Amino acid sequence: MAFSQNTRKQTIEALKNNNLDLLIVGGGITGAGVAIQAAASGIKTGLIEMQDFAEGTSSRSTKLVHGGIRYLKTFDVGVVSDTVKERAVVQGIAPHIPRPFPMLLPIFDEPGSTFDMFSVKIAMDLYDRLASVEGSQYANYTVTKQEVLQREPHIESTGLQGGGVYLDFVNNDARLVIENIKEADELGAAVASHVQATGVIYNEAGQVAGLHAKDLLTGEEFDIHAKLVINTTGPWADKFKALDEKEDQRPTLRPTKGVHLVVDGSRLPVPQPTYMDTGLNDGRMVFVVPREGKTYFGTTDTDYTGDYKHPRVEQADVDYLLKVINKRYPDAHITIDDIEASWAGLRPLIANNSASDYNGGGANKGKVSDESFDKLIKTVDDYEDKNATREDVERAISKLETAHAEAGLTPSQVSRGSSLKQAPDGMITLSGGKITDYRKMAAGALALIRRLLSEQFNIQTKEIDSKKLQVSGGHFDPTNVDETMKFFTRIAADAGLPEADAQDLANRFGSNTGRVVTYVRDGAAPGLSLKETISLRYSVNEEMTLNPVDYLLRRTNAILFHAETLDSLKQPVIDEMARLLDWDDDRKAVELARLNAAIDESELAYLKKADAPAVTQ
């Protein structure tokens, strides 16, 4: 189904001329999740996004679908239980995107360490029970110091005790968003990027009845009328709320910035995702993740008050992460010149909430007291001896007390929880949360939306099982992923692609691979491989790819994980997009400048120049 610059014009007309049941503001993962469920429910749905889909927070995560790893630090069983169950749901509805990839957790004997070898095993056993992976190929296990060093010979050996291994999932965050968006469009939602909300429309009773909007590509201003409006703008939730003069304007979010840096895998070889204490006794942990021949690491967690539309990596972020990575991998000697790519993103954290955090809490915060931990251990022992139930264990966990009072919250301690509220004028706001929870957050919002449509407008809608609502590209059996991906790979190979290229396309597009290979009929574009050509044509015609940055950063990961290919890709991609979208030479020059700026920013050119030695005359 076409979803392109051409169909966008029709969508704008539909937004202008139809009275919608629901208008969603924000095209990140939260808004995308609401859109697919609303459209599937038969709700007349519209969605507007002021940038590209996922351009903000939802393409700037750690790119993992977490199973609650962070919450093992405080044994927050409720959060872990919810998260691992939802992780399995996401894998079921988007089976071509999240992939299982066990996580290594090295254990160090040092001040401020999160776990020792004893406590990590208890935590992982509880985790496996909640995730229902006991006795499976993904069950946790511990490894000795020697085994950790065999896996990661470059990791710090001083104080290394051993490690734990447990299930986690790698993710492609931007692809997860666009696949939800495409399915919502297929189900009938009117979805448009680069449309900004500029004001709120009220009816005679003072209730929200739509939005004033502006098409940022054409400059056209128009109104969108809707019975209900939901704010899913992520970190912008408070800023959008400022458009609604009738809403409480007190801030509800405390955005923090997270940064990730990418180096070549030869400079920092790791065999599997690794999650460990920073070694700085600051109560924080760091991820080190292999991907597509590269290794990326992060994340920072600092309060943010700058430009929400354009957060970027600063020197302090680089200094911190390099200090951590060079401590943990003392022979690596990573410098800023090794950094091939980077990204910075904002987390829409709910303020005034001390629940479990993204990174496990600040220094000396939230440590479990000896007394409550001993009670937990006794209960676990009783459970193993069949003298206690699983409920007894969960009850003991829920009663764990921290050894330090949390007088003030550090950025790392702010909750990843979500919030669903309706203002007196009817405006709905769904904020906070994390990628793993997006489907569940949307389902909660849909329950409210369906009730309001029924009670206030006498509109009856279908109740759906969103746990079974598969996204675009994910329409296949999630219990048979490996064999199905081999089938999709064969489809691409039979169309003339080399095996490796065919596999890459299948992994990217899932059940849409058959549609992608239909673009083979026109042959390869000048300067592009057949794989790159058909991927680009499909993305322009069916994924609302409007410029080269959309394609090379969010529809693919070329800017992040294939920086060495960009010099040869840039001009051919622009030339083929110009042919598809009818650009003249002036427009091509503008797009090249935009793309070069995005690449320079990712490669930290602005910091590397500042770091360069002065040239003597």
Automatic annotation (TrEMBL):
Source species, domain of life: Bacteria
Gene Ontology terms, MF aspect: glycerol-3-phosphate dehydrogenase (quinone) activity; glycerol-3-phosphate oxidase activity
EC number(s) recorded for this UniProt protein: 1.1.3.21
First-tier enzyme category under EC: oxidoreductase
Residues in Alpha-glycerophosphate oxidase C-terminal domain copies: 466-588
Organism expressing this protein natively: Schleiferilactobacillus shenzhenensis LY-73
Domain FAD dependent oxidoreductase: 21-352
Keyword Oxidoreductase: yes
InterPro entries: DAO_C, DAO_C_sf, FAD-dep_OxRdtase, FAD/NAD-bd_sf, G3P_DH_FAD-dep
Listed name of the protein: Alpha-glycerophosphate oxidase
Reaction catalyzed: sn-glycerol 3-phosphate + O2 = dihydroxyacetone phosphate + H2O2
Keyword set, alphabetical order: FAD, Flavoprotein, Glycerol metabolism, Oxidoreductase
Cofactor(s) essential for the protein: FAD
Keyword Protein biosynthesis on entry: no
Gene Ontology annotations of biological process type: glycerol metabolic process; glycerol-3-phosphate catabolic process
Transmembrane segments: none
Family according to the record: Belongs to the FAD-dependent glycerol-3-phosphate dehydrogenase family.
